[in-house]
Design brief:
alpha+beta; single chain; NADH Oxidase; two-stranded antiparallel ribbon; 176 residues
Length: 176
């Protein structure tokens, strides 16, 4: 699979996962893809924690309500540091978003599925803070995303996308 195929094939998977473990080598490849993402002024504000220990995964699942990714044999938590980069602007959101997209593509390339869970854990109930405590994340970092990782138990079908012509143009926005 090339990168353009991975981009087209990748979609959010919210189904059950097979019990097959994800080798540490694959988790390292996925995380390296995330760390290789661009970051504003090269501040490298994104850090990652892979979880493949069933006991730690269970502790995380106990605080994620409603539950997500419960059957995934591994997960990656994305951390950020809010560091100003240029003209007192922070690009942490862009940095970790690029890292997450790279990891999602690597996940598909390696034959796994995932889903980007951010709002679900960073909402007003701040599930992310309880997850961070479980993972011993220092206060100077914020846990912003949870990516379950595993082999899909069910067939996956990407959602239908609008046509190119409905969303992309050359030179000008079309007259309506």
């Amino acid at each position: 699979m090339n990168v353009l195929e991975a981009i087209r094939y990748r979609h959010s998977y919210r189904g059950k996962y097979k019990n097959d473990p994800v080798p540490k080598e694959d988790l390292m490849k996925i995380m390296q893809a995330g760390l290789d993402a661009p970051s504003g002024c090269n501040k490298q504000t994104t850090s990652l924690i892979a979880i493949d220990d069933p006991e730690v995964l269970e502790k995380l699942h106990q605080v994620i309500n409603p539950p997500v990714g419960e059957t995934a044999p591994a997960a990656i938590c994305v951390l950020t540091q809010r560091i100003n980069a240029y003209r007192d602007k922070c690009f942490a959101v862009q940095d970790y978003s690029a890292a997450i997209q790279n990891m999602l593509l690597a996940i598909v390339e390696l034959g796994y599925q995932s889903c980007w869970y951010e709002g679900h854990i960073t909402d007003d109930d701040r599930i992310c803070d309880r997850m961070a405590q479980i993972l011993n994340v220092p206060d100077s970092y914020e846990l912003v995303c949870y990516l379950p990782v595993g082999i899909a138990e069910n067939n996956t079908n990407p959602p239908k996308k609008k046509s190119f012509e409905e969303r992309a143009w050359f030179n000008f926005f079309p007259k309506i």
